[in-house]
Specification:
Blueprint: H1 2-38, H2 69-80, H3 83-96, H4 100-129, H5 134-162, H6 172-190, H7 195-213, H8 222-239, H9 248-271, H10 275-281
Helix pairs in contact: 2-4, 2-9, 3-4, 4-5, 5-6, 5-7, 5-9, 6-7, 7-8, 8-9
Length: 282
């Protein structure tokens, strides 16, 4: 009888051990598939519970949205294809400059424009392909947020530097860079902690110089400036819609690209030379 009990106990344990082994094997397979998706493979067979191919669930209030593989790719490509045009456009403004001040302004604006697309692209590539390097991803995400402040300041630089301003309005030339520095410090200290406050800072910095620019005697280009600002504001809707609208962040990138193109056109047309003048310099 003791032998039978021992045999029965053994027979009752073996199926349980087998079940545990099967569960562990299944977990290993899921983890392996997750890792493939984690590394950037867009495999339709590796979709996890609560995820789709084109959108994941919304992030918690204090967390960051995790894009799907296809969203990662769209986030990268929508800004990567603008790097070369930004460099060429910056070189064009520098070429069209008449004096040292215009060249410096073209350099400032061009650096801000190129940095926006380069840093954004690098961050999204790291978030897509190297997200297991959490510290690296975190720092690039911070840089991605910081560069927005300097891009806003650089976008206003041609209007503030090359147009005649009143005594009080002229202070905006340096104050906007002080705001950019303050925004950078805020990101460094409170990155991703108070998202609404961060968005408020972006909008405040974007609208404050506009009040000065609209008070200029020369109003050429202000319609384009306002149009670009409106496009940015509409894009914010998608910026805050991750997990609600598929590819929301990539759509936000397209709004940024469109608004930046409108602003560049206004700067090129009203603050620098015409294409016919440029051809004479070649």
């Amino acid at each position: 009888m003791p032998g039978n009990v021992r045999l029965m106990g053994t027979s009752s344990v073996l199926p349980k051990a087998k079940r545990n082994h099967d569960v562990l094997s299944l977990e290993h397979e899921v983890s392996h598939e997750d890792w493939r998706g984690f590394k950037g493979g867009c495999n339709t067979g590796s979709a996890m519970v609560g995820k789709t191919l084109f959108m994941n669930h919304r992030a918690p209030a204090n967390g960051r949205y995790k894009p799907t593989c296809y969203e990662h790719a769209a986030n990268c490509y929508t800004h990567a294809f603008l790097i070369v045009p930004a460099i060429v456009g910056s070189a064009l403004l520098h070429r069209l400059s008449d004096d040292c001040w215009e060249k410096i302004t073209a350099w400032i604006y061009g650096m801000g424009l190129c940095a926006l697309f380069i840093v954004s692209t690098v961050f999204h590539i790291v978030a897509w392909k190297k997200s297991h390097l959490r510290t690296v991803e975190h720092w690039f995400h911070m840089c991605d947020r910081m560069v927005i402040y300097f891009f806003i300041a650089a976008s206003y630089a041609p209007w503030l530097n090359l147009r005649e301003l009143g005594p009080l309005a002229s202070h905006m030339r340096w104050f906007i860079w002080l705001m950019a520095a303050g925004g950078t410090i805020y990101v460094f200290l409170y990155h991703e902690k108070y998202k609404v406050i961060e968005l408020f800072f972006y909008l405040t910095m974007g609208f404050s110089p506009a009040l000065v620019v609209t008070s200029m005697n020369n109003t050429d280009g202000l319609h384009e400036l306002a149009c670009g600002g409106l496009i940015y504001c509409l894009g914010v809707v998608f910026f805050k819609s991750d997990g609600i609208i598929p590819f929301a962040h990539a759509i936000w990138h397209l709004f940024v690209a469109t608004a930046a193109a409108v602003h560049y056109y206004a700067i090129w047309k009203y603050l620098y030379r015409s294409p016919t003048d440029f051809m004479r310099h070649l």
